[in-house]
Specification:
The chain is mainly alpha-helical. Helix content is about 55%, strand content about 0%.
């Protein structure tokens, strides 16, 4: 778990280069190739499963909890963020930061 014991990006790059070279030159054991093909197939199947799971999750998420709060505003610069924070602190902002019910519409 010690980060200092992990390989560097250069070491990983060299390792991947060696593996690719062996794959390109057909120097890899058939057992290794079977494992790679199985891993790739599992990744494809997992991705399909995860996509389906996410779809189901988001299709149910349209029902919001009555006490949930959400505020979405585009802040294009750090300067804009500082201005917004100052407005909120001073009470000049029209946004209620504690809770916005789902019937309230924010006009930008």
């Amino acid at each position: 778990d010690d980060p200092s014991e992990r390989p560097t990006s250069t070491e990983l790059g060299n390792l991947f280069s060696e593996i690719l070279e062996k794959l390109y030159n057909n120097e890899v054991d058939n057992n290794v190739m079977r494992q790679l093909k199985t891993a790739i197939e599992n990744q494809k199947n997992t991705s399909k499963f995860q996509k389906q799971e996410l779809f189901e999750l988001f299709s149910h998420s349209s029902k919001l909890h009555p006490q949930s709060c959400y505020m979405s505003r585009y802040i294009h610069t750090l300067h804009g963020l500082n201005d917004l924070l100052e407005e909120i602190k001073s009470g000049k902002s029209s946004v209620n930061i504690h809770c916005i019910d789902d019937e309230t519409e924010i006009q930008n």
